[in-house]
Amino acid sequence: MESLEETELCFPQLLNSSCVKPKSSQFDTMLTYIILSCISLLTVSLNLLVIISVSYFKQLHSPTNLLVLSLAVSDFFMGLLTLSKIMLIEGCWYIGDVMCSLGQYLEYIISSVSVGTMVLISIDRYVAICDPMHYSTKVTQKRAKVCVCLCWSCSVIFQSLILMENLIQPGRYNSCFGECIVVINYIAGVADTIFSFILPIIAIVVLYMRVFVVAVSQARAMRSHITTVTVQGSRKVTAKKSELKAARTLGVVVTVFLMCFCPFYCVSLSSKDDLMNSSSAAFVLSLFSFNACLNPLIYALFYPWFRKSIKVIVSLKILQPDSCEANVM
Asked: 181 — phi, psi (to 5°)?
């Protein structure tokens, strides 16, 4: 049996009330520190560039980009919250039960917002591709703003109900000082699974399957030379190509999101133990957090406007008068 001197405690001054630090090699701990710190820094920096680009340049003020902005804001905060996970690498939580519950609460909200925004993006692309004639009247800047506000508001209210017990009495499920455990009761867990996982996934998959089918048929129609080559006709074809490209790019975003998102709920549904204490859950939580870093990289790969706006921001041309009117498309 190990002696007290050989056992490392999270709070040595509390003796028997303190949690015991799990044993891990110094190399693994330092490697995890470095990886999580890099992911967090990269996530915050890249999403901040997206937020500045879409918010500042007037050419980018469109309903679709407003949804991209909402996703970037949630990803930005996910990057900041990744920093809090660094404290759990050594197996101890040092900043109190209130901050533990608040951190988990914010993470649930941001995750819920990300899911809701993905559904909105799928609806936006569905209308743009499947009903292009009425897209400009159905999807307006004002309606997009209302939908984004509702998404954030509903996420805050819903997660407040889900995590009510943990918010009212932080640390109620901790067995010792230095733990950070959040437990959701069965009914709340079922509700969260249905509304934050099953229904959104069904909606996203169904909408994008329909978008894919229509997009393929439109692409084939554009390859054939049925359309008469006129100025008006060429403009229509250009508009269609633009919409198809946007659908493809956002389709990649949605696909990557599902790949990073689904494992989290698969582990949560199959695991009876607390997620934060499971090694497999630690991996899927990191994967879900890493998704927030991938979205701006996808934009940089597929969107010329994002690359152009980054050049303007990094070169500090954004400080020039009327730079918000710059042509970044």
From this structure: -120, 130
- Is there a domain that residue 2 lies in? no
Domain at 43, CATH number: 1.20.1070.10
Decide if 3 is inside a domain.
no
Q: Which domain holds residue 197?
A: 12-325
Is the Cβ–Cβ distance between 29 and 90 less than 8 Å?
Answer: yes
Residue 103 lies in a domain: yes
**CA-based angle 92:286:250, to the nearest 5?**
150
Considering the domain boundaries, does residue 256 fall inside one? yes
Taking residue 127's Cβ as centre, other Cβ atoms within 10 Å add up to 18
User: What are 207-223's pLDDT values in tens digits?
Assistant: 888 877 777 776 666 66
Q: Which of 180, 157, 149, 8 is nearest to 81 (CA)?
A: 180
With DSSP H G I counted as helix, E B as strand and the rest as coil, what are the percentages for the chain, rounded to 5? 75, 0, 20
In the chain, the amino acid numbered 171 is G
How many structural domains comprise the chain? 1
Mark out the alpha helices in 22-140 (DSSP H runs): 26-56, 63-86, 97-130, 135-138
> pLDDT tens digit string along 26-44?
776 777 778 778 888 888 9
Q: What is the distance between the alpha carbons of residues 316 and 313, in angstroms, rounded to a whole number? A: 5
